[in-house]
């Protein structure tokens, strides 16, 4: 698991919302009755983290608490529970490596070892501030295991080779495409579909006339249904 405590909180810089964050949080607050505006805490923390270079300092958490009328400890509890909230500085590209069982069975341990060698120790920012990585629990993309969330996007079906290329591309200032890194469409079978491939399933050629339903009322005779002429 990643580090879930502040690192050197005594050194945290003061925090104030900028106009963009202020407007976005106000938008979320309007979704709830004013006495329930604490319900906006998760998006408010996310917006605050975006403004604060990808992490939440102690002054930032206090600003959220004050804004939403919450006690500081309640906001702190939420921020320390969810690994989507970082409590210490992160790199420009922050890797959340899923280490839960399906990803582990598909090679997540090798990805973690590679991150350790290429980026450095877990939870630390690489030289130049470009990269950091942590291990997280299941990110809900197990069918495309192993996967890593990099900033806001998922990179899936990874291997050492594709991960190395991703890191090199980010280092070179490119923005690699998120999604799967094997030949498949989203979560469909790798290569080509392996089931329901018979086209006659879809072209209508298998359609049969509807079987007659026993004892169903007979349709009215044509003459009986014809309008009565004056
Ligand atoms: S186990 Fe990795 S995404 Fe679910």
Summarize it.
The chain is an alpha/beta fold. It has helices at 19-29, 41-51, 58-68, 72-81, 101-105, 108-118, 160-171, 222-225, and strands at 93-98, 131-136, 148-150, 153-156, 179-180. It has two domains: 9-81, Arc Repressor Mutant, subunit A; 93-180, Glutaredoxin, CATH 3.40.30.10.
Descriptive keywords:
flat, alpha/beta, single chain, 230 residues, 5-stranded mixed β-sheet, Arc Repressor Mutant, subunit A
Q: How much strand?
A: 5-15%
The CATH superfamily of the largest domain bears the name Glutaredoxin
Structural class: alpha/beta
Strand numbers in spatial order across the main sheet? 2-1-3-4-5
- Described by the principal axes of the CA atoms, the overall outline is flat
Instruction: Please report the number of helical segments.
Output: 8
CATH architecture of the largest domain: 3-Layer(aba) Sandwich
Helix content: 25-40%
CA-based gyration radius: 28 Å
Poorly predicted sequence stretches spanning 5 or more consecutive residues: none
**Structurally, how many domains make up the residues?**
2
Bound small molecules, deduplicated: FE2/S2 (inorganic) cluster
Summarize model confidence as the mean pLDDT: 91
N-to-C CA distance: 87 Å
* CATH C-level of the largest domain: Alpha Beta
Order of helices and strands: HHHHEHHEEEHEH
- Under CATH, the topology of the largest domain can be stated as Glutaredoxin
How many E-type strands?
5
Query: How many strands, what sense, and barrel or not for the largest sheet?
Result: 5 strands, mixed
